[in-house]
Structures are given as structure tokens and as C-alpha cells.
Amino acid sequence: MSFYLAAVLQALCLGPLVLGVYLTMKVFRFPDITADGSYTLGAVVTAIGLVNGWSLWWCIPLVVLSGAIAGICSAWIHNRIKVNLLLAGILVMTALYSVNLSILGRSNVPLLQYGTLFNWLTVFRTSDSNTLIIVTCILCLLISFMTYLLRTDFGLAMRATGDNEQMLRALGVNTARMKWIGLAIANGLVALSGSLIAQFQGFADVNMGIGVMITGLGSVMIAESVVLLFGIKRIAFVLLAVISGMVLFQLILAFSLSLGINPVMLKLVTALIVLLAVSIPQLRVYGKRF
Predict the structure, then answer these.
(1) Which of 184, 139, 160 is CA-nearest to residue 27?
(2) Residue 251 CB neighbours (<10 A)
(3) Residue closest to 71 by CA, chosen among 169, 242, 192, 161
(4) Which secondary structure element, helix H or strand E, spans residue 203, and what is its range?
């Protein structure tokens, strides 16, 4: 049971990541590969902060700021140099590997002997319950923030940028600024997720971000199937479905490992789960077409 609880806790720590992926994939309608690098950047900044005795009140804002800067770099390359946004994300992600390695100083830094958010803020005596309530509170704050943001005039402009950028530009809206801010918010969330995972697992590694975009994409696709199946319209419930998609995704991986699947094959299982998640909306077993 503790094995599945650990999977749920890890999924909740990845909650900010999937919210960031949702923002780029479903609001702006493009995959932002920068997430693979900004996720690790959040973990690296957290590790350096904890090792040097920085207060968590400083570490967390610096983590979000560092991720936002990474997103701004991708937006700058796309808007100013006119590079395809997918390629811009790949370039920044590649550059961030060297940046992360330079900041960290080595490939891996253990954090078990340092005070993290989960043992600094004590709510319950048991560590798992304490982690669960802390991460849940963080996710509730983030969902409330994103729900409010996407329902404002500015949020509607962000959503319109993804739906019809040319029309919005014709109406006099600066769509480039929308992308700057949107990518900054998305990668700030992704970096926060990297920070939470580093504190939860007790280490930061320069390779921990490899394939994390696929995990986020699979979770969003699962959530999309749920949203279409139940006809969910409210933004808050859609965001909850996105978080639930990540939890379900991690539970499926945990179940696969419990069946005795070789961990070497875990990436293959992940790819198959994403393929299934992408295929479900196309099958439309809940609609007219089968």
C-alpha cells in the first residue's frame, strides 16, 4: 500500500508540471520542450539553496523565477529571431543541460540531510501524511490562481492566442507578449514541480528531467479523455482532471512495476500509456463514431 501511496505523492508533486504542460498544450496549442530543462533547473536551484543554507522562503521564489526565465528565453528566440517555437524549446532545453550541470557542480547532489519543505513545515507526525497535506495545499493554491487567471480578460486573450492568433493580432492584441507571459508562467510551474520532486525524493540529478514532458503530455491526454467523456466545462474542474490524470498515470506505472516488469522497460511502458491516452479521444467510444 505504501508503494502506491508513494506513487500518489509523486504524482501530486508533479502536479505543477502537468498544469504548466496544460497551459502550453491546451491554451497556447503547442508543445514546449523547454519543460525538460526547466524541470531540472528547479531541482538544481533547490539543491544549491539547501546546500548553502538558504531559507525556503527564498528558494521557492528563486525556483519559480529561474523557470520563468527559461520560458522567456524560448519566447524570445521564437518572437525575436523567428525560430519555430518547438525548435526554440529544444534549443533552450539543450542549453539548460550545461547550465544545470554548471550550477550543480556535479551530476547528483543528495538532500536527505537538509531541511526540506516537507520536514520543515510539520502538520502531521507521519511523513507521508505531512507531505500529502502540504502538496495538496500547494495544488489548491495553484488551481485557484490558474482558474482566476484564465477567467480574466487577460486569460481570455491568452486562450484566444492559442485558438486564433492572427485574428487576435488583427484586433490589436500583442500576441508576442501573451506568449512571453504564458511561457514564463508555464515554466515557472514546471520548475516548482522539479523543486518539489527533488525535496520529496531527497536528491537532485541533472538527468531527472529527461522524458518529463512525455509524462506531462500523457497526463493531459488522459485528462482530455475524462473531460470529453463527462462534458466538463468549468476551468477549475478541468484543472482538477489534469491533476487526476497525473495521479492515474503514476498509479498505472506503479501497478506495472508491481507486476514485476523490469524497470529497464519502464520507458517503453510509459510510451505505451501515452499512446493509449492519445488514442482514446480518437476512438470516441462515448460518441457516434467507433
Answers:
(1) 160
(2) 14
(3) 192
(4) strand 203-205
One digit per residue, pLDDT tens: the chain, 290 residues? 477 888 999 999 999 999 999 999 888 888 789 999 999 999 999 999 999 988 888 899 999 999 999 999 999 999 899 888 889 999 999 999 999 999 998 889 999 888 888 887 776 777 888 889 999 999 999 999 999 999 998 888 888 888 888 888 887 888 888 999 999 999 999 999 999 999 999 999 999 988 888 889 888 888 888 887 778 888 999 999 999 999 988 888 888 888 877 778 877 887 787 777 767 666 654 444 43
Q: Is 30 exposed, middle or buried (0-12, 13-18, 19+ CB in 10 A)?
A: middle
Contact indicator for 103, 45 with CB cutoff of 8 Å: yes
Residue whose C-alpha is closest to residue 219's, from 280, 273, 169: 273
pTM of the model: 0.92
